[in-house]
Design brief:
The chain is α/β, with parallel strands linked by helices. It contains ten helices and eleven strands. It has a six-stranded parallel sheet. Helix 7 links the parallel strand 5 and strand 6. The structure holds NADPH dihydro-nicotinamide-adenine-dinucleotide phosphate.
């Protein structure tokens, strides 16, 4: 058996087209153009590349993009003042502060200063709490993308045995909350879990968000299961080059699973597309309009 490959790149491209349609409709019917402000402090190359891709996707979907680049010497007060200005700016519906922040800045204090209504990363404790209590929330983008990908395989996630490996605030915990909201039966595992392979073998839906290259082996997977691989790990190859691999040993898993996301081209592209979705959702909520169709 060979698993169906879940084409995250194509699914994300479709989603961005739908977002662009909603952006056009909002402008035409309500005179609202969603705007996303991205704050980057310092010149971490990976962060610069993410921020560039986010700005490009924002403009391509017809939204406004506001880039704020600050030196790595920026003080916490300066960052808080910028967040305060963006909170008050009516053209800005989403605020994203790119992590990591320089060491002199308390990142959590900066994230906590973002207006929860504009918190398109979904990291604010108010949004995390709203998600956990089943209220309407802006939810973190990568977990949202994982659920959308799983739903391309399963019409409903209700009753599925879902196992999440990883419990970070960015991926593991919010994806577990979203799965619960979809009525899956959820197990969250982590570095202190006993017999992880056995836990994983229970899963109809396995979500790996660990940060360990190819840790999940083929014999950890129940035949026919759906596997969503969040991991992005750069490893050295024999020729001295490097390549990206996920947290799942893809070549082994593809022979056992029913459906699986590749790395790259699986969860990664969905993250930015879901940021666009969150910005449109935030703009509608702020303008007092009904939820968009994305
Ligand atoms: P974190 O390092 O914050 O969390 C990793 C989690 O994995 C922790 O809960 C940790 O457990 C658990 N873990 C680590 N080692 C083991 C082990 N040996 N056995 C079981 N569990 C283990 O990572 P993130 O959640 O931020 O990211 C996870 C991966 O997803 C990374 O590869 C990252 O690059 C990728 N990622 C991809 C994104 C995308 O857009 N596709 C976006 C965000 C992340 P414990 O809590 O006990 O320490």
């Amino acid at each position: 058996m060979t698993a169906r490959i879940i084409d995250g790149k194509a699914i994300a491209a479709d989603l961005r087209v739908k977002v662009a349609g909603e952006v056009r409709r909002l402008a035409k019917q309500h005179g609202v153009t969603p705007g996303l402000a991205v704050v980057l402090a310092g010149n971490n190359p990976a962060s610069e590349s993410y921020v560039g891709s986010k700005a490009k996707a924002t403009l391509e979907t017809g939204m406004r993009s506001f880039d704020h680049r600050l030196p790595d010497t920026v003080s916490q007060d300066e960052l808080l003042a910028l967040v305060g200005r963006l909170n008050a700016d009516p053209e800005v519906h989403g605020i994203l502060v790119q992590l990591p922040l320089p060491p002199q800045v308390d990142a959590q204090a900066v994230l906590n200063a973002i207006d929860p209504a504009k918190d398109v990363d979904g990291f604010h404790p108010v949004n995390a709490g709203r998600l956990a209590t089943g209220l309407n929330a802006l939810t973190p983008c990568t977990p949202l993308g994982c659920i959308m990908l799983a739903k391309t395989v399963h019409d409903s996630l209700a009753g599925l045995e879902a196992v999440v490996v990883g419990r970070s605030n960015i991926v593991g915990k919010p994806v577990a909350q979203l799965l619960l909201a979809e009525n899956a039966t959820v197990t969250v595992t982590h570095s202190r879990t006993r017999d992880l392979p056995d836990m994983c073998r229970r899963a109809d839906l396995l979500i790996a968000a660990i940060g360990r290259p190819e840790m999940v082996r083929g014999d950890w997977i129940k035949p026919g299961a759906t596997v969503i691989d969040v991991g992005i790990n750069r490893v050295q190859t024999a020729g001295g080059k490097s390549r990206l691999v996920g947290d799942v040993a893809f070549a082994e898993a593809v022979a056992v699973a029913g459906a699986i996301t590749p790395v790259p081209g699986g969860v990664g592209p969905m993250t930015i597309a879901c940021l666009m979705v969150n910005t449109v959702r935030a703009a509608c909520a702020i303008a007092g309009l009904p939820k968009p169709s994305v």
